[in-house]
Every structure is written in structure tokens, then in C-alpha cells.
Amino acid sequence: MRNGAITRYSSAAAKIVVKVLVAILGVELAIMASFEWVAEPLLGRELPWWFIEFGDPLLLVIILAPIIYHWVALPLRDAQKVIHDLAYHDALTRLPNRRMLNDRIAQAMAVSKRKACFGALMALDLDNFKPLNDARGHDVGDLLLVEVARRLTICVRESDTVARFGGDEFVVILNELSADSRQAMVQAQRVAEKIRLALAEDYSLKVVKPGSPEVWINHRCTASIGVALFIQRDPDDLDLLKQADVAMYLAKGSGRNTIRFFQNTSTV
To answer: At a CB cut-off of 8 Å and minimum separation 6, what does 4 contact?
Structure first.
């Protein structure tokens, strides 16, 4: 911890929290063996003095104390549902997090292989998020991320997936595109362009702080989008995200606010 803000978190702290929750709920919470979903959103945030007084091994227990207290009063089935939701969804945007994203990618690959149709994975990075976050603070940056998540969700079908990969990075999975590579590329391009235009529209962010009048902040933010098509891929293949990431950096290098496809002769 530095200057009242969390700068790291230890595996020892995570293990303590797991033991506390298992003791309270009487259930093995293997899905919570890693506690990035609790600690990562708090990195760099200023905390009350009473957080600072305690050593690192107790930190996450203190953070979770109100939540644990709430869970004790819940039926076990409801508590497990809450835990599952926290473990598989981003705390800020409520989108699937990295853990659920991995499952969704495997499912999309399996569907593509079974139905012999293409799918597409898009990696999106916001082009000018950092200036807003640095100038206005995390709270305003969070408002932008929530709005980005909302716009992304309405650009795709219910059968598709929008996930927050971390920071200002998002991932979109398009399922069951055409079996023809050229047609699949056209379909993915159409959705990517829809997303690009939606994210490029002006943002009006309402900031409300206790004891202060509400303030509206206007901001322009675009996205660089990389797209990787896939078909007949092994669900354990981890290269797909890397390919979309390569294409996304090509988009950034091409002036940002644009779309680039990963060129793979076996699929495109």
C-alpha cells in the first residue's frame, strides 16, 4: 500500500478470505481460489484510514466483511448465486469477466466446429480513455466504462458475448456466422463498424457527489478494433485472443478509431 492506496495484494490474503467463506457457507469455493475480481478494481484507489491500519494478510477480509455479513443472512442457494455472479462477472460493468470469457470462447469454438460455421472474436481498446481517467479521476472513468459496456451490448445479438477483458479493453464474440469465409468477414465487419460508430458518439457523463451539485462532463472516445475469424478450431487453442490483439494493435497503428482483421490464410 502506498499513500493510502492499494498497490498490490498477496496470495496469503486471498487464501484467508477463501477459508473464511468456506467456514461460513460450508461449501468448497474452488472458483474463488483467485481473488482478482475483488482486489483488482481497488488497485490505485484511495482508502479510508482504517484500511491502512491493518496488515496486508487481513486486507481482503476487511474489504469483504460487509458482504460476508450479508451472505450469512442469505439462504445457502442464494449465497452461492451471489458468489457465482461475483466470480464470473466484472464488478463495475456487470459484463462477463476474463474467467467467463475463457468459457465463452471455448463454447464458441465448439459450436463453430460442430456446425462448420465461422465465428469471430473482436478485441477492443479505447483510444482516449486515459486522458479522461487521469484528468477527472477513476470515478468519471468508471462512468465511461459503464456506458461503453451498455453501447457494446446493444450492438450484438443475445447469442453473442461482450466481456470486459480489463482496464479499458473489451472483447466481443460473434457466434454462428456464415460457413463461407468471405461472407463471414462481411458479417463481422458490419458488426465491428456498428460498434465503432456507437462508441465514437459523444459521451455525456453525469457526476454526482454528496453535498455537491451534479456535474455533466462531455467526452469523445473512440475504439481500435481487431477481429480474428475462426472455424474448426480446438477449444483449447489459446492463440485466438492473441490474433485479435495483433489486429487491434494494427488498428491503433493505422490512426485509431478503425478496424483491422487478423490475416490468416487458413481461415480468411
So the answer is: 46, 47, 49, 51, 52
Q: Does the pLDDT of residue 3 top 50, yes or no? A: no
Q: How far apart are CA 89 and CA 48, in angstroms?
A: 26
Does the pTM of the predicted model rise above 0.85?
A: no
Select from 55, 88, 121 the last residue of a domain: 88
Question: What is the structure's pLDDT at 29?
Answer: 40
CB 248 within 8 A of CB 123: yes
Q: How many domains does the chain have?
A: 2
Report whether pLDDT(173) > 90.
yes
CATH of the domain at 179: 3.30.70.270
Sheet holding 119-126, edge to edge: 161-166, 169-174, 119-126, 223-230, 259-261
The residue to which cell 477513476 is assigned: 138
- Nearest Cα to 136, choosing from 217, 45, 220, 48? 217
**For position 93, what pLDDT does the model report?**
93
Q: Read off φ and ψ for residue 138, nearest 5 degrees.
A: -60, -35
For 45, the domain range is 11-88
Q: Is the pLDDT of residue 181 over 90?
A: yes
Indicate whether 44 and 115 sit together in one domain.
Answer: no
